[in-house]
């Protein structure tokens, strides 16, 4: 079985179990706080600014003539350069983690203090823990990305399966014990501890080495340009949807934010599973482009696209049928109303199509759609907040879908056609 698919199936099953615990043991208000905490931890990928994605692509190219030895040792010509690549990446993430904490910790204190429900919760210590663990989880990203890019996909996804099982188990336990604000931090804790133990016992030669030396590896030449373009895409993606949970928390109430967060989590779950076919083929597709083997690249891309799209379509239809048939069930009371929920699933499907185009282009270390997509996201955010304030949640979802269909999709298709014309 596709290891990425197995990971996403595991992730989906554990998400369903977590969903059960949330609906059984949290109030609607606690659910809102839970998903708002999760939205802030998602900001680590905004601070990452596309670097982890860039590392996967660059690593697949740099490792082409190398192989792994015992305990993470690197065998082959230019092995020192590749180790320096790992060291510099860790040093960069150390700075990113510190920056995340310095900015997000005080912002969260001010943000949650303004909530009328803040007096009902002892949230300060859970918030400190959440921000610290978010910053520490950033330190794991360079190792996970670089080793995945080198071709050791099975190793990384086995590690991720252990992380998600451990984190979800701890999360459900804390929800059951009535610690709803500590629960969101458990996956972050699991990511850090499991990654550290993995490095300590299986890859001690890759343990962190802080360095400022760029003699062996030119970071600016190989990483910065591509990373910044991917980062703009990441920023646009966060502004496009993730930001609305804390926005709803602030402008509406925790209950509405919680329903939106849970509905989005279900949509993201099926989107995550469907992306499995792309994820495992990205290193191979990148290598095909590097070798100018466009025929094999096209075959891999089309196969991944058709498999993932068909799976996603069937999943969306199945979920809608479940909602329609069992709408009186307590679980569905925790979601947005039926038509708003369908809007979230439509958003996930359209995003899948857009992301397919981005992956197609990104395999050649190009990101021509970064700025157009970022501008689309700014437009969506502006319209979204306006319609949210005047027409509540339904107005928000309609504005998101309208921007996607009439602005983002056409822009993506135009950019894709221009790119194809250049390389073929």
Description:
This protein has 424 residues and is mostly helical. Helix content is 79%, strand content 1%. The protein is built from 18 helices and 2 strands. The chain has helices at 3-25, 28-41, 44-48, 51-62, 79-113, 124-138, 141-149, 153-176, 186-202, 219-242, 244-251, 254-274, 276-279, 282-290, 294-325, 330-333, 338-362, 370-423; strands at residues 67-68, 74-75. Strands 1-2 form a two-stranded antiparallel ribbon. Strand 1 and strand 2 (74-75) form a beta hairpin. The longest helix is centred in the last third of the chain and has 54 residues, at 370-423. The radius of gyration is 21 Å and the shape is globular. The two termini are 34 Å apart. 45% of the residues are buried. The mean pLDDT is 85.
Which key features would you list for this structure?
424 residues; mainly alpha; two-stranded antiparallel sheet; globular
In terms of DSSP E residues, the strand content is under 5%
Low-pLDDT segments, ≥5 res: none
C-alpha geometry: globular
User: For the report, how would you describe the main beta sheet?
Assistant: 2 strands, antiparallel
Helicity range of the residues?
over 70%
Gap from first CA to last CA: 34 Å
Short description, anyone?
The chain is an all-alpha fold and 424 residues long. Helix content is 79%, strand content 1%. A two-stranded antiparallel ribbon has the order 1-2.
């Amino acid at each position: 079985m596709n290891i990425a698919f197995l990971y996403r199936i595991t992730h989906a099953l554990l998400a369903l179990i977590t969903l059960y615990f949330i609906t059984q043991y949290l109030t609607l208000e606690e659910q809102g706080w839970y998903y708002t905490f999760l939205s802030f931890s998602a900001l680590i990928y905004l601070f990452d600014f596309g670097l982890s994605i860039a590392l996967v692509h660059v690593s697949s190219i740099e490792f082409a003539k190398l192989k792994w030895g015992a305990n993470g040792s690197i065998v082959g010509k230019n092995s020192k350069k590749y180790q320096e690549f790992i060291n510099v990446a860790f040093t960069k993430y150390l700075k990113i983690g510190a920056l995340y904490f310095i900015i997000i910790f005080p912002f969260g204190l001010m943000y949650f203090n303004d909530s009328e429900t803040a007096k009902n919760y002892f949230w300060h210590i859970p918030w400190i823990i959440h921000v610290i663990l978010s910053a520490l989880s950033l330190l794991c990203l360079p190792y996970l990305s670089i080793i995945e890019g080198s071709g050791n996909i099975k190793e990384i996804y086995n590690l991720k399966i252990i992380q998600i099982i451990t984190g979800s188990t701890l999360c459900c336990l804390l929800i059951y014990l009535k610690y709803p604000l500590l629960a969101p931090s458990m996956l972050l804790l699991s990511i850090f501890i499991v990654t550290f133990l993995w490095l300590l016992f299986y890859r001690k030669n890759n343990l962190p080495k802080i360095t400022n030396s760029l003699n062996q590896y030119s970071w600016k030449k190989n990483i910065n340009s591509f990373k910044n373009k991917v980062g703009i895409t990441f920023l646009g993606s966060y502004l496009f949807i993730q930001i609305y949970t804390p926005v709803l928390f602030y402008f509406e109430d925790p209950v509405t934010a919680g329903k939106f967060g849970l509905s989005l989590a279900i949509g993201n779950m099926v989107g995550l599973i469907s992306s499995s076919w792309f994820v495992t083929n990205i290193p191979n597709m990148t290598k095909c482009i590097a070798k100018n083997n466009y025929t094999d690249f096209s075959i891999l891309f089309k196969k991944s696209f058709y498999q993932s799209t068909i799976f996603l379509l069937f999943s969306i239809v199945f979920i809608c049928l479940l909602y329609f048939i069992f709408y009186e069930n307590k679980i569905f009371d925790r979601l947005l109303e039926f038509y708003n929920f369908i809007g979230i699933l439509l958003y996930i499907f359209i995003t899948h199509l857009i992301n397919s185009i981005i992956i197609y282009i990104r395999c050649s270390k190009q990101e021509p759609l970064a700025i157009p997509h970022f501008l689309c996201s700014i437009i969506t955010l502006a319209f979204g907040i306006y319609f949210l304030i005047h027409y509540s949640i339904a107005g928000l979802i309609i504005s998101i879908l309208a921007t996607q269909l009439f602005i983002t999709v056409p822009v993506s298709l135009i950019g894709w056609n221009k790119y194809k014309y250049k390389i073929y």
